[in-house]
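Re: beginner question about structure tokens

> Can someone show what the tokenized structure looks like for a real chain? I only ever see the sequence side.

Sure, here's an example I had lying around. Input first:
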Amino acid sequence: MTDSSTDIICAGLSFGYGRTTVLDKFDARFRPGLTLVKGFSGCGKSTLLKLIAGYLQPSEGSLTVPGGTAPEADFQRRALGFVFQQLNLLPLASLRRNLDLVGTLAGLSRAEVRVRTAKYLALLGLDALADRRPSTLSGGQQQRAAIARALIKEPAVLLLDEPTSGLDDLNCRVIMKLLGSHLPPACVCLVATHDHRLETLPHEGLDFNRFLPVERHLVALA
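And the corresponding structure tokens:
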């Protein structure tokens, strides 16, 4: 029997922007491990991640995260890792400081922050760049830094929005190796993507196109 306290559960979830419906009575259960949320651009993948994170509120239905609660401020601070498409690294802080701040806000001790910062920067090939600011790094390095920052909490929920979009194969392989081998225990990891390279990872899959077939006429044109 599955322990539902480790799952993300969406029940009758609805959400829209103005008159545009994005989700309509959406039901899903996401268990620990990696789930690829696939679909065309604009089909609602990013919206789903933001609802799960608690950054958006559904108009109908309910959503619970591991522990059986709705996503709220304490969950966001302590148990959520989120990598936005815009990355949102603090521009005036070094990579090390970016990770330190997140770990400290999550309630980690100084020793835990130090150990985990070293661990995730090394796993993502960034240890030699720890004292540099994000603006001095390549796009791939910044993307890996954002993932390291999300992982320092060793979160119960890790949400990544197009983490390999626009990256070369080498950067993609580094991120794939981490996702395939170094997720925290019992972590529910959702990756919104249309990058077919990620499909070689062991994963569950959710095809979001069937929920909102946006601009279907483009299929015929393509």
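Each token stands for a local structural state, so reading them left to right follows the chain. The mean pLDDT is 91.
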